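Worked Example 4.2. Consider the chain below.
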Amino acid sequence: MVTPGDKEQCLSYVLSSYMEVSHARACRLLGCSRKTKYYKHKMPIKDKRIKEIIQKAIGTTRKGRVKVIKQVQKDYPELGVSKIRRVYEREGFSLSKKLRRRIKDNPKNPIQLPLAKNEEWAIDFMSDSLNSGRRIRTLNVIDHFNRECKGIEIAINLPARRVIEYLDILIERHGTPKRIRTDNGPEFRSKLFQCWLTKNNIEWSRIRKGKPQENAIVERFNRTYREDVLDAYVFNTIEDAQEVTNGFIEEYNEIRPHQALNYQTPSSYVA
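Applying the procedure from the previous section yields the following structure tokens:
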């Protein structure tokens, strides 16, 4: 189907390429109206007032389309949404969209069971909520060698700074790992965390996007922690959750037998 716009383009091409063809003949051959040559678009003249109103509403600030439309309609209720939106977009008032930074996917990184402790730690986050409805996060740290839970930190927020502070405490207590396995979360991709890894000569072993099975040991631990603590108790404060969690860690490392360790505990497996 040929649109009027396509016909105008063909008409322009014929008139510019064949000088001997008159405008009337070209219109007759292409089935175009001769009035299009003399027609002046009235829409820009009508939209001039709306453009000035939008410029006044925006001023020197950065406002999105929805806010501009609401502000214009507040002062000029007779203007419709579609009319304001059309002028807003056509005149180039739209804000530039910030392109999302694409994370380059990592190569396959299957788990390799180490032969000594502190060869590789696995870290992962979990989330839950208090009785009041406020969300909390947990940072779980596991040693791949003997499945020992090095520790669990609970807080409202766990940015990279808090993660580093807690890992420093665990390193003083258990020693420095050679590698740390994580996902591609923003806390681990931050410059602060990367500088901390370099400073402590720790290798970052990150898994592929959407492949939690490459961090399966800590994921399996998360299920046990979820069933035995987070889903089994109702916490009023973070202190209550941390107290119950500390008891769970002691039972997990000292009493609970692990099938992957030939039904030994993490503590006895090290010995």
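The radius of gyration is 33 Å. The CA atoms of residues 131 and 236 lie 5 Å apart. Compare this with Example 4.1 before moving on.
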